[in-house]
Amino acid sequence: MKPTKNRQKQRLQRVCGLAFVLFAGSALAVLCRIFWLQWVEGDALRAAGEARIYRTEELMPARGDILAEDGRVLATSLPFFELHMDMKASGFSNGLFESSVDSMALGLSRVFGDKSEAAYRAELRRKWVAGERYARLGNRDVDYPELEQLRRYPVFRESRNKGGLQVVRKFRRFKPLGDLASRTIGTVNAHGSVGLEDAYSNELQGEPGYRIVQKIPGQMAIPVWGEDQQPPREGLDVVTTLDVNLQDVVSRALRQQLVLHNAHHGCVVVMEVATGQIRAMANLKQNAPGVYRDEVNYAVGESTEPGSTFKLASLIALLEDGLIRLEDSVNTGNGQMRIFDRVISDTKTGGWGKITVQHAWEVSSNVAVASLVKRYYSGREQDFVNRLYAMRLNQPLGFEIRGEGKPYVNSPGSGQWSGLSLPMLSIGYEVRQTPLQTLTLYNAVANGGRMMKPYLVKALADHGKVVRRFSPEVLEASICSRSTVAKVRQVLEGVVNNGTASNLRNADYSIAGKTGTAQIAHANRGYRQGNEVQYQASFVGYFPADAPRYSCIVVVSSPRQSGYYGNVVAGPIFREIVRKIYTTRREWFPTCADDGPVHPPASKAGDKGDLVLGFKQLGIRIEDDARGQLWVNTTKQPDRVRLSVRGESQGLVPDVVGMPLMDAVYLMENCGLRVQAVGRGAVQRQSVAAGTTPIRGSVVTLEMTVKD
After folding, report:
1. Model pTM?
2. What is the DSSP letter of 157?
3. DSSP 3-state assignment of 45?
4. pLDDT of 196-241, one tens digit each?
């Protein structure tokens, strides 16, 4: 029996020993694991745990403004606010909720307007019972005045810990001037950006900040307010060279002419000659009959065959190489020039016959230009092309807005060169230029041969303090000799005084420039679509001709009615722009001494915008009884000028009696009538009665108050 007991005892001891070893080993393993987790992996595990509860959230900065040259806002970021309630905020007691739920419901109903007070009360109670930590309020974001209105109610005006209101600020882009220069200013959204918004996005967007947020049930997060956050740095403001008043004039003049001619689209650019600063840029595209929007930047991006405006480059080449003189004669024959199977024609039936070189360019003779270039450059075509290259006509401008159209000049050896290429190139075909590239060439002529790079932004500013300025940049010190510049300018003045743009001639100011009428090619289909030919009408020039301050190009594409020639379609827009600049810019007039109060002068009926601007600059009080009217009558009062309604019927002959000649001509030409004026001053009598249906192309005689 005794051996058996010993064996049992030994077995028990072994089992207990094994159990002890296992227990001790397990305890040691646990201790080792605790040590490992605490001291080796502890920091990483704690960070991972916090990462599941807390995260860093990026705070987007307010985007900088885009400003006009005088500081007026063209594009800005307006704050909007997303509202939430933390129903378990530490200070938000049940008693406070019950005493405030009615006023909260009333405030939400009044601000959002989507539900009744009772509906909001029921919704708030449901979210309170559910204990929602980040309950959305309302069906949309609110603006700042709405947020301030809401904060007048109890609880909403309390701190976030006591009242539970959580406000998340957002920003939306807004253009205070609406469609004015809209495509040039550009847009920025989730799909990308264009225009200045794109070109200066890095400067405008600023630097993001950050804050810590805590995750709560329901896959939501609430901010943890404390010192561990970095506020964002707001973006810089972009100060442009755009003149808002001039931009408005340009847009209105372009829109009116596009509607008159039912054109597909058009663009205008006004540039400061000495610097290359762009003072106005308008692009309008037809969305529906009579409806035009600034959606596509044709001035920068549309590269087309320019037609007759390119003849300036041909003239410069011929003069620079000493091949012609302005007084030389050129025979245009019957106005037709056959080259292989192509006939180059002049617009004048029967041709111009034998005329001087200067007059050939003044009347835009295709035959004269093509025959001269063909005569002198046949066999050395590359010399002519090299002259064009010397004027940078094959190089992009490097304009700051993305999307500049690529220029093209056909050249020998290109694979596209033929026996027709040289004469066609000389009159603006087999070459492509954007309106801005064409304007840059004319601006160089106005600037004595120095070619300036066009630019739209003159400074970057931080809350009004300029942090960077942009200076004018010279692309080419001289595109040709001074003597050639002088001769070319003489010809461009002659175009207005004696040639195709004589309808732009004015006794008060001088204009120089060139008309252009080009057929539009349609990819591989040529210049015709069935029996239809589409045209591009243009005028490009500068003013005053003797001391140029501004250059301007007007391009109208696919006019469908009331003519298609450059002087008829684009010329009136150019004339209107020059007139507005001339009448509203003090630099055109000598400084007058201040001799005391200004008494209301006698004034004529006319454009209300012009009259109001003039009276305000003179300090004359206005009594406006013609709100919303474009054309008004004026009546002199002892201490003011009264503006009254001047009835005009759309589509009928206007009543222009009492108006200055420029306004009268503008209205009559918009009706499709040709004007013949007798005398000067104000219109005293018109030969076609007001209110009748106009016969397009017929002549109306305007008798003025002063007979010459």
Report:
1. 0.73
2. T
3. helix
4. 999 999 999 888 887 777 766 544 556 665 656 778 888 999 999 9
Domain match, 248 and 232 both: no
Q: Which two tokens stand for residue 38?
A: 């605490």
179 pLDDT more than 60:
yes
Which are the contacts of 266, defined by CB distance < 8 A and separation ≥ 6? 254, 257, 258, 283, 284, 298, 554, 555, 556, 557, 570, 573
Q: Which residues contact 315 (CB under 8 A, 6 or more apart)?
A: 361, 369, 488, 491
Tell me, yes or no, whether 181 and 138 share the same domain.
yes
Residue partners of 494: CB distance under 8 A and separation at least 6: 358, 359, 361, 362
Residue 118 lies in a domain: yes
Residue 11 in any domain: the answer is no
Summarised one tens digit per residue, pLDDT across range 318-331 is 999 999 999 999 99
Residues 251 and 154 in one domain: no
**Would you call 225 helix, strand, or coil by DSSP?**
coil
Q: Are 594 and 292 in contact (CB under 8 A)?
A: no
Beta strand extents in 90-249 (DSSP E only): 135-136, 142-143, 165-174, 188-189, 192-193, 209-216, 220-223, 237-240
- Domain boundary residue among 240, 256, 281? 240
Residue 5 lies in a domain: no
* Residue 462, both tokens: 């931080």
Residues 274 and 234 in one domain: no
Angle (CA) 366-367-368 rounded to 5° is 95
Structural domain containing residue 215: 57-240
Last residue of a domain, one of 214, 240, 266: 240
Q: Give the chain's domain count.
A: 3
Buried b (16+ CB within 10 A) or exposed e, 252-281: bbbbbbbbbbebbbbbbbbbbbbbbbbbbb
- For residue 498, give the nearest of 306, 360, 366, 677 by alpha carbon: 360
Q: Are residues 556 and 470 in the same domain?
A: yes
- And the tokens for 100? 């405030």
* Residue 371 and residue 388 share a domain: yes
